[in-house]
Structure formats: C-alpha cells, structure tokens
Amino acid sequence: MIGDFERLAAETDMESFISKYVRPEEFILQCKACPNYGKLWSCPPYDFDVMGFWKRYKKLKLVAYKIISDDNGEKMRLSMEAARKRLDGELEREETQLPGGLRLAAGCCGLCPSCSRPEGKPCRHPDMMRYSMESLGADVVNSLKELLGLELQWMSKDRIPEYMVLAGGMLTP
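^ that's the sequence the OP posted. Answer follows.
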C-alpha cells in the first residue's frame, strides 16, 4: 500500500494479450459514445492500424493503482490525482530507461488545455502524447480481473465505490 492507493502489476507476452483482450472492433463502439471521440489525438478514430500497433511489441507490463475510498468524494478525487501523478511518473521513468518501450496512459491525454485535433491541426506534442489501452481496443476490465485479480467497481449517483482503479502499461519491443 502506498498512501491511499495500492500498486499492482503483471507482465504478459503480447501474443497472449492480443488474443485474449484486444478487440478494437468491439471497443470502438464504447469510444464512439464518449465525448472525446474524434476530439483528442489520443482517442479514436486513428489513421493507423490498431492491431499493427499492438503487434510491434513483444510484452506488456500492466500496472494498476487501486485507490481506496472512505466515502469522501473530495478525498477520493485528491487520491486519484496523486495516484495518476505517481503512475504517470513511474511509467515515464521506465519508458526513458527502456529503448523502444512505450507507455500506455491511464485515460486520455491531458497535456494541452485544448487539443488541436478539432481545429484540424496536428498534435502539438506528438513526442509526449500517449494512448490508453482502452482507446487501442483493449479489454481493460477483463485484463485487470484476470492478470491482477482486480474487479472494477463503478460509481453511481448516490454511491462512491470501495475503491477506484487507474491502469496504464509499458509496451516492450
């Protein structure tokens, strides 16, 4: 346990991960329902082959931070921010030490106050922008469950879950 969150990690070979969890044609439907669809460079639709993207790598290290709740919404929000900073920092450091490695973000890109994509302009920071697993068609719910033993819980209007989860990863060539 680290502060108000717990770190979990597992490594898998890419062939197994793709065969069990990567289904872009299925998960694009969820992306289309999101307000970020087509509005952020880190979100679909993409101008590249998503399966080809995954196949460029040999391994994936899946990293999740389980943020523990105490039914205090503001404390949970602050814990989520702290966990995201820690996860991003961990994966950024690992990426710089791993030639050809690429990190997968927890959620969509937030580098710029507003993305240049709706203006029809290229990404301002293509060297820093990263994709999330779900935006690339990965089944994050089942991969977390099967690889880390972590069941996702969901918020409702009147209930804060026992914990929330942020998940990212490191792709290894």
